Amino acid sequence: MNISEEEKSVMAAIDGVDEKHSALLKMRGIAERAGLAEEAATLDRAFTILDFGAEVSDKDLAVIDQLLDAYESAVNAAHDEGAVFEEALVNELKSMNLKREMITDVYLGASLQKEEKAVMAAIDGKEVTAQEGGYQGWKNYESWAVALWFDNEQSSQQMVQEWAQEAFAAAPGDDSVSKGYLTVMEMTKIGLADRIKSYVEENNPLADESTMYSDLLGAAISEVDWQEVAEHYMEDLEEPGNTDEVPSSDTEQASVESLIDGNDVK
Asked: Cα–Cα distance between 44 and 165 in angstroms, integer?
């Protein structure tokens, strides 16, 4: 079968993206095991950006290129100098002094661009729904599965519900809420989502392995919409100020007696 140069170019591009995905995913796992939270967060965003296929700024493309260069340098160090690949990569990441906010804007931009494409497709008369590719009413199978397994056992379900209450209680004291940037419920969702995500990742039985199976599990975990899972456990929480305080029967009785006494005085 003859393959045109254009087809070869497209196939090469697809292979290149897959290689980048694999490298970034492996790097993120190593960064998490090494306790490099900022680096792991940046790698997570870089992986998501490639997943979106969004047009990103030159600045943030440079960040992704630096990450991939670090991966290649670690591979070369392991090959040429006999160094342990994981240790070499950790040293490369530390030397970069990455900050999570370096890629946050483009991460949000990629998400917005995806929504804009959906809107444009709807305008063109194409059928687009918010749950495109979803599962059982959830964004995807991975998010549904996390909630399902937490709900399967009363102990784990109660544990997450307690986390929701704790996040709800802590939210008003956060600067983002006190300064009016986020509502109590928004801050609660962020805090609860982070806690659920940390719990799942810390209890990943393959986290310390570097195999095809650990990569596949890591890829599945990266697809979970943690905020959607958090919302599932926030249904019984109520925004402060949205509930009317119902007076108790004792309070009502005292009010009636006060009125009677007042009328007697008159």
From this structure: 28
- Mean pLDDT within 69-96: 83
| Cα–Cα distance for residue pair 147/210, rounded to 1 Å | 26
**Token pair for residue 66?**
């630096």
Domain interval for residue 143: 131-244
CA 232 to centroid of chain Cα atoms: 15
User: Residues with Cβ < 8 Å from 183, sequence gap 6 or more?
Assistant: 177, 239
Q: Render pLDDT for 234-261 as a digit per residue (tens, 0 to 9).
A: 988 876 555 444 444 454 455 445 544 5
Is 257 contained in some domain? no
**Token representation of residue 233:** 């456990």
Compute CA distances 58 → 55, 61, 62, 63, 64, whole Å. 9, 5, 6, 9, 10
In the chain, the number of structural domains is: 2
d(CA 53, CA 49): 6
